Each structure stands twice: as structure tokens, then as C-alpha cells.
TrEMBL record:
Its cofactor is Zn(2+). InterPro entries: Cbl-indep_Met_Synth_N, Cobalamin-indep_Met_synthase, Met_Synth_C/arc, UROD/MetE-like_sf. Zn(2+) binds at residues 639, 641, 663, 724. Pfam families: Meth_synt_1, Meth_synt_2. This is 5-methyltetrahydropteroyltriglutamate--homocysteine methyltransferase. Catalyzes the transfer of a methyl group from 5-methyltetrahydrofolate to homocysteine resulting in methionine formation. Binds 2 Zn(2+) ions per subunit. Binds 1 zinc ion per subunit. It comes from Lactococcus hircilactis. The gene is metE. 5-methyltetrahydropteroyltri-L-glutamate binds at residues 15-18, 114, 119, 512-513, 558, 602.
Length: 753
């Protein structure tokens, strides 16, 4: 074996899985047909890997929703309230992912969180004293046998026990230690079954090892694996890590009886150093993550060879990707609108298989032709540098990052200017992106709907939803973001320096995908991007209309960034572009402007010691730069979702926004204590219901959430809003939910009069 990957996108080349699953959710497709689509995708993926001469394509990397949820199912870590529904296995699985509300059933989804430093979201496992861990190996074995029927021998993968225990939430006094023995038994049983089925390799993913590890963490890891590995007979075990280096755990890993260890040489800055310093045992195989699994730029073969050349000579290694390829689109061959000159610089998942094949030829067979060909893309100037922009950034001073007057003075001025009631209600920006809207946008894109007709259509939607917000008494209105395909791609398409794709979809969570735009060069804003729509919307109402922008950190984090300049540099370019937009909105009469930084935490280094110098020290100022020049009476909102925020609360306060809305309801408002402890100054809307589930919250349920918020946050600091935008929801459930939200806020408001 000389080449390998960690996982392949499972959405299908044309998002076949998304469309089939969503039809199944609507009862328009049978479970059998859904499974047929899934099987076709798996076979296609294995064939692609086989064509690239990967000896062991990966199996069990396919998932109907999420790989962590699959591991919960493997371990039978299914909370009792879901087991009690007495649904079939797939229905139970989807109930855990999405919640379920019928005439007789009403159960909330499990929380969803960001998967390490990616824009992928996993379903948080829940372990309680009632959880009966018991391995269910059927799904893993079935996929191995399915591949065998096509003549393909695969390497199954699953999330490891250590990462699972680290990501889980614990209820009813359960603790990680309570599950050590049962997890050992489960993974041993799996090893045993694989052995009986003559499987050569098992890949166990332990990305949690790239986080900071203390002695107790390492002890837990060791205890788990010393026992599991006792079950090893002929099936070999690859311990796979990614998203960073394992500097704290390296020696522990070497001392255990793994046959292969997967290290990340792209994001793992210390990986090379670890190997140089401590060596790598001759009796193990190094699965070397050299091809970037997260970005779409071609691999620079010479740089890869330079890394390899620094390893001790006796290392037995396999060329691999830095992480699963689920984080990049399937193939560049679907791109019909980008010039070949541009596409030549990219490698999506399928092309990365080819890169591994070529690297194999260079490294193991001395084929230099591929090396020469590859060098062409890394010599000369790919783009013309914007010197004026570079100078503008160089000349920024501390004053450019400091809004005046101070927060407390602004608060008073804004109270007077906006005259909002206590516990003001608002939403996060988007309203349902219905089939009707998507079809109209597609027709416009294909020139089947004229500019005028499309604009008229969008204006009608905006007007209808303004009327609805007024009817139910929302205080600060939004226009609904109907003109946007996505909160990042929309901006990428209007900024110079970006290129964008047609079909380069990447899974974000469940059936939802994103098409990250690509930063190709220096970024400028040629024209206003949102002003026309916000101005139109404000003209339709006497109430305050909130302008809606995406912030620079989030735009960059949800784009494929350049690798030839720093993230900081691209973010500052974006910050200047968004600053121009903010000031144009203000000039157009928009009095509240929300600048979403949903992804602020995403690129926070996974190791806490790197947080400030490598990220927060420039990410927070970049946000401040965007709004520093607005008038005191203009209220700046921001919004964040799907991350763990409790540990960066002071940094969030330092963004110096006037109001922030958080995703907090699905994670049970756990953020509130941290707000209180840190004397959080920014006004806050912690999100009173979860928008990622189709269930409609009752008025009483929302009142309970408000009650809980008011126990921890002063009433005049609280905003009432859903926890994220409503684009993924249907219109009917959105309207009912918002009516309940408004009613609950009014009830509470009265209590304080
Ligand atoms: C807030 N979130 C976002 C994240 N990242 C982003 N880049 N954007 C986000 O909003 N990360 C964290 C969270 C959670 N994530 C998501 C991610 C994605 C969605 C979502 O609803 N995605 C849509 C696709 C959105 C889009 O780009 N739509 C386009 C294209 C629509 C389309 O598929 N058209 C079809 C034809 C029409 C049809 O038949 O329906 C086609 O082109 O073939 C658009 O609207 O124009 C998804 O469907 O997955 C939500 C939350
Ligand atoms: N304004 C965006 C934020 C999502 S994180 C929306 O409402 O969809
Ligand atoms: Zn959000």
C-alpha cells in the first residue's frame, strides 16, 4: 500500500443524497429508494478510488446524516426518549438528528456543533446513566461486504472511543469514566468481527488528539486502547488523526500497538518536528497527510517532497490526505463556467485522488514528468497585486479599529434614537428559501427570467414578509435575504478578487450543503452589494429595518482561502470592503446593521495557547474595523452560531458590537452562566428556539426560555429572537413559531411594566 485517503464526500457528484433524503423526509420517496441512491454513491466513490489505484478505498465513511451520529448508533448511545419512540432504525436515527413532531410525538433534536475547525457540523452524542453501550456492527460489515461484491476490498473507518467521549454531553451524573469498559468491549467486538471477515485494516479516527492533552486525557486514551488492542489478531489498526498535530500524544501513540498512525502534515505544524525529534518506529506505517483535505488548491509536489525528504530514511510510509475529503467538493469536471487557466490551479476530491497517484509515481517510482508539469502552477505571478490596497492596509492606525463614543454612551444615544420596547423582538435575517424562490433564482441565472421580473418577484416576497412581521408585532424587521443564495457566496459573487463555482458543493450538516466561493486575488468592493434591497425594505415600513451583512472573518472562513498570503491579510481586505458597505447602508437611512460573524470561532486554533497570537489578535480587530466609523446612533448587531462560545466570551465582548444574537437554545442555553460570570456588556439575544428542527415551539416553551435567560441576564440587556436565520424552514412553521415568539415576548414585557 502506497496511497490512501481518510474519507470521500458522500453527497454525490450532483448532491444526489441531499435530494433523495429530503424527498424521503417529505414522504415522497421510500426508504428502499433512498438506500438505493446511497448504495450508488458508495459504489461510485469506491470505483473512483480504485481507478486512482488506492489499494484500500475507505468504507463506512458514507453517512445518511453525520459520522458522529453513526458512531452513536454503532455504540447504541441512543437516548431513551428516542428508543421509546419505537421507530425503525433509520427513523430513530433521523429523529435524533432533526427532532420529530407529529400528532403523538414531540421530541427535540440532539444539539449540533461545529466539527473542530471546519464548517461541518456533527450531532453531539448524549451519554447518561441509562445508556446501555452495545456494539452494533451490522452497518460497518454490510458496507464491507457490499464493496466486496464489486470486487473491492475496503478499509472501514469510524470515530474512535476517545474522541467520542470527548465530544459527548453527559446527563444524570454520568461521567466519561463510566463508559470505558463498555466502549472497550464494543470496539473489541468490532475488531473481532472484522477479523472473522478477513478485513485487512480498520481505521479509527481520533481527531480529539490534536487538542491540548493533559495527563488525565492521555491516561484515558491509553486505558481505552491498551485493552482494545489486545483483541488485535490479523486485522491491522490505523489510528488516524487530523486537523493539527499530536504534540502532546505522540509518544503515547508510539508506545501503543497500532499498526499505522495517521498524522497531518498540512495543519499539523509540529508533525515534521515530532518525527525528526522522536523518530517513527520501523514496525509501524506512517499514513502521511500531505495532500490538503480542506482546501482546493493543487498540491505543490516539490513542497511535499521537501517534507518527505526531512523524514528519517527508514520510515515506512503511505501518502495520504490531511483529513477526510468530505470538506472539499467532488470534482472540478462539473465546472463549466471557469476558464481552464483557473481550473488548472484547483484539485477537488476526485482530482486529489489523482494527485496521490502522481505523487506515488514521483516518490516511489522516480517519475519526474509529473513533478515538472506540477511546477508550472507554482512559478510566475498568478495574479496582479493590488498595491494601493496593500498600502491602505499598511497605513491603518489604532484609531481605525476604535468606535467612538464608548459602548455605554452609545447605548443611551441609541435608546433615544430607536425607541425600542423592553425585550425587543427580531429575527436573524433570512426567511424561508422556498422551492419557489430557488426555482425563480435558477430561472434568472439561466436567463429564463428577466432581471426586471426577478427583481419584482423578490420585492413582492420582501413586502409580504414585512407585512407578516408587522402583523405579529416584531419590533426590528428584516427583509428576509431572499435575493441571496447563501450568506457568503452572495458576497463572494459581488466582490472582485473572488471566483465562484457552479457545482462545487460541500456538506455543511445533514442534507444541507454550501458552495464556498474561492479567493483568487486581492479583494475589493466594486459596487454596493445590499443597499438596494435594504433601502427598498425600509421604504415599506415605519418600523426599523435591520441591514444584513456577513462579516469579514466569516466570509473568509467560509470561502476557500488563498494559500499565498495570510488569512489575516485577506480578512483585512474583506473588512475594508464590508466597511464601505456598512457606511453606504448608514447613508441610505438604515439605523440598525447586523454584521454576522457566525464563523468567528471556527478558525480559532484548536490549541488554546495559540488563540491570541495566531487568531483573536487580528480577527477581533478586523470586525472592529468594519464598524468603527459608524455614527453613535447606528446600532451594530452581530450574530454567531453552532460553536462553543463560553470560553471566548471576553473576546466576543471586545468586538464592541451593540447587540449580539447567539445560537444557544439547542445547547440548552448553556452559554448564560458564562455571560454572567464575565459581566458581558454587549446586549444579547441568546436564541429562544432552535431553528434547525422543523418542530414548532409552543408559547409556553419560549416563555420558559425567556425566564431562564432573565435569571442570568439583566432584562434591559435582553433581545428576543430565534437562534439563527430561518432560511431552512418552511413558511408555515416559521410563521407559527414567530407568532409564538412575539406572543411570549409581549407576555414577559407586560410583567415589567
Ligand atoms: C448558517 N450556516 C451557513 C454556513 N455556511 C455557509 N456558507 N452558509 C450558511 O448559511 N455554516 C453554518 C450554518 C449552517 N449551514 C447551512 C448551510 C447550508 C444551508 C442551505 O440551506 N443550503 C442549501 C443551498 C443554498 C444555496 O446555495 N442555494 C442556491 C442553489 C439552490 C439549488 O440547489 N438549486 C437547485 C435547483 C433548485 C431546486 O430544484 O430546488 C440547483 O441549482 O440545481 C440558491 O438558493 O440559489 C441546500 O439546499 O443545501 C443552510 C444552513
Ligand atoms: N443572517 C443569516 C445568519 C445565518 S448564520 C441568516 O439569517 O441566515
Ligand atoms: Zn446563524
Amino acid at each position: 500500500m502506497t496511497t490512501s485517503i481518510i474519507g470521500f464526500p458522500r453527497i454525490g457528484k450532483n448532491r444526489e443524497l441531499k435530494f433523495a433524503t429530503e424527498k424521503y423526509f417529505k414522504h415522497d420517496l421510500s426508504q428502499e429508494s433512498l438506500e438505493k441512491t446511497a448504495k450508488e454513491i458508495r459504489i461510485e466513490n469506491w470505483n473512483l478510488q480504485k481507478q486512482a489505484e488506492i489499494e484500500y478505498p475507505v468504507s463506512n465513511d458514507f453517512s445518511f446524516y453525520d459520522q458522529v451520529l453513526d458512531t452513536s448508533r454503532f455504540l447504541n448511545a441512543i437516548p431513551k426518549r428516542f428508543q421509546d419512540l419505537n421507530l425503525n432504525a433509520l427513523e430513530t436515527y433521523f429523529a435524533m438528528a432533526r427532532g420529530l413532531q407529529t400528532e403523538k410525538i414531540d421530541v427535540k433534536a440532539l444539539p449540533m456543533k461545529k466539527w473542530f475547525n471546519t464548517n461541518y457540523h456533527y450531532i453531539v452524542p448524549e451519554l447518561s446513566s441509562e445508556t446501555q453501550i452495545k456494539a452494533s456492527t451490522d452497518q460497518i460489515l454490510e458496507s464491507i461486504l457490499e464493496a466486496r461484491k464489486s470486487g473491492i476490498e475496503t478499509r472501514p473507518t469510524l470515530v474512535g472511543p476517545y474522541t467520542f467521549l470527548k465530544l459527548a454531553t453527559y446527563t444524570e451524573n454520568a461521567r466519561p469514566e463510566d463508559f470505558i469498559a463498555s466502549f472497550q468491549t464494543a470496539y473489541k467486538l468490532l475488531l473481532n468481527e472484522l477479523d472473522k471477515n478477513n478485513v485487512t485494516w480498520l481505521q479509527i479516527d481520533e481527531p480529539a488528539l490534536v487538542l491540548e492533552q493533559n495527563d488525565a486525557d492521555l491516561e484515558l486514551f491509553k486505558t481505552l486502547y491498551q485493552e482494545i488492542l489486545k483483541e488485535k489478531k490479523t486485522t491491522k489498526v490505523l489510528l488516524q488523526t487530523y486537523f493539527g498535530d499530536v504534540r502532546d500524544a505522540y509518544l503515547t501513540l508510539l508506545a501503543l500497538d497500532f499498526d499505522g498512525i495517521g498524522l497531518d502534515f498540512v495543519e499539523g505544524r509540529e508533525s515534521l518536528h515530532l518525527i525528526e525529534r522522536y523518530g517513527f518506529p520501523e514496525n509501524k506505517i506512517l499514513f502521511a497527510g500531505l495532500v490538503n483535505g480542506k482546501n482546493i488548491w493543487k498540491n505543490n509536489y516539490q513542497k511535499t517532497l521537501d517534507i518527505i525528504s526531512q523524514w528519517p530514511k527508514n520510515i515506512h510510509f503511505v501518502l495520504s490526505t490531511s483529513c477526510s475529503l468530505q470538506h472539499v467538493p467532488v470534482t472540478i469536471t462539473s465546472e463549466t463556467q471557469l476558464s481552464q487557466d483557473i481550473l488548472n490551479h484547483f484539485a477537488f476530491a476526485t482530482e486529489k485522488l489523482q494527485e496521490l497517484h502522481e505523487l506515488d509515481a514521483i516518490v516511489f517510482h522516480g517519475n519526474t514528468a509529473f513533478l515538472v508539469e506540477n511546477e508550472r502552477y507554482f512559478t510566475g505571478n498568478r495574479i496582479k497585486k493590488d498595491d494601493a490596497l496593500a498600502q491602505k492596509i499598511d497605513h491603518l492606525t489604532a484609531l481605525d479599529f476604535e468606535r467612538q463614543p464608548s459602548f455605554s454612551k452609545r447605548l443611551e444615544i441609541q435608546k433615544e434614537a430607536l425607541k425600542l420596547p423592553l425585550l425587543p423582538t427580531t429575527t436573524i435575517g433570512s426567511f424561508p428559501q422556498t422551492k419557489e424562490i430557488r426555482v425563480a433564482r435558477l430561472a434568472h441565472k439561466k436567463n429564463e427570467l428577466s432581471d426586471d421580473a426577478y427583481e419584482q418577484f423578490l420585492k413582492e416576497k420582501i413586502t409580504q414578509w414585512i407585512k407578516f412581521q408587522e402583523e405579529i408585532g416584531i419590533d426590528v424587521l428584516v427583509h428576509g435575504e431572499f435575493e441571496r443564495n447563501d450568506m457568503v457566496e452572495y458576497f463572494g459573487q459581488q466582490l472582485s478578487g473572488y471566483v465562484f463555482t457552479q457545482k462545487a458543493w460541500v456538506q455543511s450538516y445533514g442534507t444541507r450543503c454550501v458552495k464556498p466561493p474561492i479567493v483568487w486575488g486581492d479583494i475589493r468592493r466594486p459596487n454596493p452589494m445590499t443597499v438596494k434591497w435594504s433601502k427598498f425594505a425600509q421604504e415599506q415600513t415605519q418600523k426599523v429595518m435591520k441591514g444584513m451583512l456577513t462579516g469579514p472573518v466569516t466570509i473568509l472562513n467560509w470561502s476557500f482561502p488563498r494559500e499565498d498570503i495570510s488569512l489575516k491579510e485577506s480578512t483585512l481586505q474583506l473588512a475594508l470592503a464590508i466597511q464601505e458597505e456598512v457606511l453606504d447602508l448608514e447613508r441610505a437611512g438604515i439605523r440598525i446593521i447586523q454584521i454576522d460573524e457566525a464563523a468567528l470561532r471556527e478558525k480559532l486554533p484548536l490549541r488554546k495557547s495559540d488563540w491570541n497570537k495566531e487568531y483573536l489578535d487580528w480577527a477581533i480587530p478586523a470586525f472592529r474595523l468594519v464598524h468603527a466609523k459608524v455614527k453613535a446612533e447606528t446600532q451594530i448587531h452581530t450574530h454567531m452560531c453552532y460553536s462553543e462560545f463560553t470560553d471566548i466570551i471576553p473576546a466576543i465582548d471586545a468586538m464592541d458590537a451593540d447587540v449580539i444574537s447567539f445560537e444557544a437554545s439547542r445547547s440548552d442555553l448553556s452559554i448564560l452562566d458564562s455571560l454572567k460570570e464575565n459581566h458581558f456588556k454587549t446586549l444579547v439575544g441568546p436564541g429562544v428556539y432552535d431553528i434547525h428542527s422543523p418542530r414548532i415551539p409552543s408559547v409556553e416553551e419560549i416563555e420558559t426560555q425567556i425566564e431562564r435567560i432573565l435569571e442570568k441576564v439583566p432584562v434591559d440587556h435582553v433581545w428576543i429572537n430565534p437562534d439563527c436565520g430561518l432560511k431552512t424552514r418552511a413558511s408555515k412553521e416559521t410563521k407559527e413559531s414567530l407568532a409564538h415568539l412575539s406572543e411570549a415576548a409581549k407576555t414577559y414585557r407586560k410583567k415589567y411594566l
